[in-house]
Write a structure and sequence with these properties.
Elements (H helix, E strand, L loop, with lengths): L2 H15 L18 E5 L2 E4 L4 E3 L3 H4 L8 H11 L13 H13 L4 E7 L2 H20 L1 H4 L4 E5 L8 H5 L4 H4 L9 E4 L22 H10 L3 E6 L3 E2 L5 E2 L4 H12 L2 E5 L23 E4 L11 E6 H5 L21 H16 L2 H4 L1 H11 L8 E7 L2 E6 L15 H11 L10 E5 L6 H20 L1
Helix pairs in contact: 3-12, 4-12, 9-10, 14-16, 15-16
The structure holds pyridoxal-5'-phosphate.
Length: about 450
């Protein structure tokens, strides 16, 4: 069978049997899904040999580039030794080694590591632990009141029911609203569309006033506050103003409820620090990690917490304080071995030091996009740069959704060798940490051309 008929047959089978995530399958009446056959470094290659920059790091997971030899070596070594074993009352070397390394990297009070296998679940675990903690420390009668989690408009914590309940992304989740539990939503610190009509010069972080109010009125009904520190990703790549996380954390700590940091997207260098919490110096009660943890190769997630929270579950079995949560692939040894290898790469290749010039180049380069009429706002942090497109710069009026600008940008990006997956009208680059200067130059150039062409068509 010649190669092209092989791929045509596979694409036909894809249409017949597959259902892709976050994808309107009818779009494939017009075009095939992008058929990726191989990857190396920051590049993905399709079945016709075309090369694309992985401009969104394969849904924000890749860090050191694809098929990194040290990652391949770790998978190969581990797969011939121990492929999988359940993690309930069983342990293994990669699981222990990874926990030790994570504890040494995170703030010192986060000394306990609970494994799961995706970002949504890492957040659910934190919420379940938080709620059960109150139950076991305050007694059942009072803890029934701790049924509220506070979260942010435009916050995104995943697609499982608990994660959706605290996500402020109704355009993804509103169909499921009858099933979602109560969560109190505070405004997003979305400076470009400030809910208080303020601007960065006069900002007094007024958007935290509703948090102050509910903490004041209902502190003993609240389990915790969940937030993506520094950068709200799926909600539109919204970068928090200076001082926001510090102020939020101080209010939460004063009220004596749990602070949950969802660093599923921001963890492992993406914002320029190992964890985004380092920009503020704030230590949460829970830290949720996934995505970059395994360099985007194996499903793995982590919920880290404190000894105090851990000890609230530690008792004779018959007291009923066990944390009954686990997944088949919890702490999979292959995934843990890969995560250990990925953290070693950070050390051996001095990644956080090496990316400093790349970050400066990206953050300076992004400002040129202000030259494009349709670009209303330019924002960024670390290896992330985002451009919010608007129909009218003065009024900040968005483009009509019928125009489906994001989809057009995606298609034009493919023509230019970029994989862009805009969030509505927010076009963003969320780049791997392995890029060279020339790569960033090219990525910025091509993205500029794509936005300019599509927005003026
Ligand atoms: C901040 C954040 N939390 C949680 C999730 C959910 O992770 P997963 O898709 O692995 O369930 C995501 C995914 O994009 C995310 O960005």
């Amino acid at each position: 069978m010649c190669t092209s008929s092989k791929y045509n047959n596979l694409l036909r089978a894809d249409r017949q049997h597959l259902w892709h995530p976050y994808t309107q399958m009818k779009d494939f009446e017009q075009r095939d899904p992008l058929f990726i056959v191989s990857a190396k470094g920051p590049f993905l290659y399709d079945h016709e040999g075309r090369c694309y920059y992985d401009s969104i790091s394969s849904w924000w997971s890749n860090l050191h580039g694809h098929c990194h030899p040290k990652i391949i070596e770790a998978i190969t070594r581990q797969s011939s030794k121990l492929d999988h074993v359940h993690f309930a009352a069983t342990t293994h070397e990669p699981g222990i080694e990874l926990a030790q390394q994570l504890v040494s990297l995170a703030p010192s009070s986060l000394s306990r590591v609970f494994y799961s296998d995706n970002g949504s679940t890492a957040c659910e675990v934190a919420m379940k632990m938080s709620f059960q903690y109150w139950l076991q420390t305050e007694g059942e009668r009072d803890a029934k009141k701790r049924h509220i989690f506070i979260s942010l408009d435009r916050g995104y914590h995943g697609d499982t029911f608990g994660a959706m309940s605290v996500s402020g992304t109704s355009w993804y989740h509103s169909s499921f609203s009858p099933f979602l539990f109560e969560s109190f939503r505070i405004p997003s610190p979305y400076c470009y569309r400030c809910p208080y009509n303020s601007n960065i010069e006069r900002c007094g972080i007024e958007c935290l006033m509703p948090l102050g109010k509910i903490l004041n009125e209902k502190a003993d009904e609240i389990s915790g506050v969940i937030v993506e520190p520094m950068l709200q990703g799926a909600g539109g790549m919204i970068v928090h103003p200076r001082g926001y996380i510090e102020k939020l954390a101080s209010m939460v700590k004063t009220a004596g409820v749990h602070l949950i940091f969802d660093e599923v997207a921001t963890g492992f260098g993406r914002t320029g620090k190992m964890f985004a919490l380092e920009h503020s110096g704030v230590t949460p009660d829970f830290l949720c990690l996934s995505k970059g943890l395994t360099n985007g190769t194996m499903p793995l997630a982590v919920t880290m917490t404190t000894e105090d929270i851990y000890m609230a579950f530690y008792d004779d079995f018959h007291k009923g304080k066990t944390f009954f949560h686990g997944h088949t692939y919890t702490g999979n040894p292959l995934a843990c071995a890969v995560a250990v290898a990925s953290l070693k790469i950070f050390e051996e290749e001095a990644v956080l030091e090496r990316i400093k010039p790349a970050i400066a180049q990206l953050q300076q380069g992004k400002d040129n996009f202000n030259e494009i009429d349709a670009v209303g706002d330019v924002r960024g942090i670390g290896m992330v740069a985002a451009f919010e497109l608007v129909q009218n710069r003065g009024s900040r009026e968005p483009f009509s959704s019928e125009k489906r600008l994001g989809w057009q940008i995606y298609l034009e990006g493919l023509e230019k060798g970029l994989i862009l997956r805009p969030l509505g009208d927010v076009i963003y680059l969320l780049l791997p940490l392995c890029l060279e200067k020339t790569d960033i130059e090219r990525l910025l150039e091509k993205t500029f051309e794509v936005i300019q062409k599509v927005s003026t068509a």
